[in-house]
Amino acid sequence: MGIVGLYAILERFFYFASKERNNYSKLPSEAKQLIKEGKIKEAIIFFNSNKSSTSTVLKEILIYGYKENKETLSALEEKGKEKAIEQIKHLERNMWLLSLAANASPLLGLLGTVTGMITAFNSIALNGTGDAGILAKGISEALYTTAGGLFVAIPCMIFYNYFNKRIDLVVADIEKTCTELLNYFRE
To answer: Membrane-spanning residues where (predicted)?
Structure first.
């Protein structure tokens, strides 16, 4: 579970550092100016230079409106929703692995605790209570597995929540900038 969790954490860090680093929280003034001047191709190129989810959705709305001659706001809005759903898949990739590691690790630790206690009680049943070393071995196994499960689960849970918050912020940016773009077309 530790390896699974570490893989998911590193993959998500790399994704957010490389793809979502320059996300827009509002429609850039350069893009507004290009759209205002009717330079849709240039606006598409402008958004294509940034690989963030928000740029991708905005670019796809403009491409759809430009190539398909779909100028109705409802058609553009639907295209934006469609592309946003595609981007959410990329944002949430491997989050299930992080959740799995965070939730299964304590259970595996608990399983080790139970087997360690079984070992301890079996040693008491076979050897009596006179040898503390045999008893300590089982209790030690129980404590190590509990600690191991928590050692994996706690960082995984922290990073799971951190990445979920990042995803929420990106989705909010997508919604805000798409609405702003569509409102700009309404003017």
So the answer is: 96-122, 142-163
